[in-house]
Design goal:
The protein has 230 residues and is an alpha+beta fold. 33% of the residues lie in helices and 25% in strands. It has a domain at 4-163: Aminopeptidase (3-Layer(aba) Sandwich), CATH 3.40.630.30. Helix 1 (14-23) packs across helix 2 and helix 2 crosses helix 3. The structure holds coenzyme A.
């Protein structure tokens, strides 16, 4: 029998979490084809959580090795904004000129102009202050580890008295959307274009906010179309 378990994150897990983040960062596949710089990618999507709020992070182990993670925070307003983390790497490490990130960043700037929509900032709503990111290696999927990670985080959030959780996934990631629905999340607002993001075939991609819990919202939020978040 394959031994697998979910436990709290420890500092020794940091490198594994960062590696898995980049290896699975495009809807479960490697992000390297559109963002080669693993260091900045991991910083954007896991750095704040592992380094400043490790108590809100969990890992999944399979056969004694870290095979996935859920990194989260209780209060989004206190967490680092991935856009700001990205900008700091752009400034310090010249990512706009490096092959492997330059394409994405220039495309993103062009999309922002073309869409006539500036950066709206993070989703800050007192009903769903907590948020999370999670990824499992391919061989660890489909066996209940995702549910176990989510259960651990939901329990952590509830114990802290935080009313609700939100997350953002790509609308095109139908597997993740199905999983999050099974975990009690519902779509909140319409999918929104994500500047710079493309499918491998070159099509624009969309972000989808999802929420769970939240005061006055026992069903876990409202379905798409009913939000003011754009
Ligand atoms: C999404 C992910 C975290 C789910 O974890 P998992 O371990 O594969 O999911 P589980 O086996 O715990 O499934 C839990 C439930 O979700 C549902 N579910 C999972 N995958 C599903 C799918 N592809 N379609 C429909 N429902 C699905 C099932 O109802 C399942 O319920 P069950 O426990 O009654 O069988 C994992 O597959 C993953 O890392 N995928 C790639 C990366 C990714 O997309 N991350 C999210 C980015 S925001």
């Amino acid at each position: 029998m394959t031994a697998s378990l979910v436990r709290r994150y420890q500092a020794a897990d940091r490198e594994a979490v960062r590696r898995i983040c980049h290896l699975t960062g495009y809807m479960g596949e490697s992000a390297a084809w559109f963002w080669r710089d693993a260091e900045s990618f991991a910083d954007m999507w896991t750095g704040y959580y592992t380094d400043y709020e490790p108590e809100s992070c969990f890992v999944a182990e399979a056969q004694g090795r870290v095979a996935g993670y859920l990194v989260g925070c209780l209060d989004t307003a206190k967490a680092a904004d991935p856009a700001a983390v990205c900008l700091s790497h752009v400034g310090r490490r010249g990512l706009v000129f490096r092959p492997g990130t330059a394409g994405f960043l220039w495309r993103s700037a062009w999309d922002t102009v073309r869409d006539r929509r500036g950066y709206a900032g993070r989703f800050l709503d007192a009903r769903w202050p907590a948020h999370l990111h999670m990824n499992l290696l391919p061989e660890a999927r489909g066996g209940g580890l995702g549910r176990a990670l989510m259960d651990a985080f939901i329990e952590h959030v509830a114990a802290a008295g935080v009313p609700g959780i939100h997350l953002e996934t790509l609308a095109e990631n139908t597997w993740a959307i199905a999983f999050f629905r099974a975990m009690g999340f519902t779509a909140f607002g319409e999918p929104k274009l994500v500047p710079g993001m493309r499918t491998r075939a070159g099509a624009r991609m969309h972000g989808q906010l999802m929420v769970r819990g939240g005061a006055g919202s026992p069903a876990g939020g409202q379905e798409a179309g009913s939000s003011t978040a754009k």
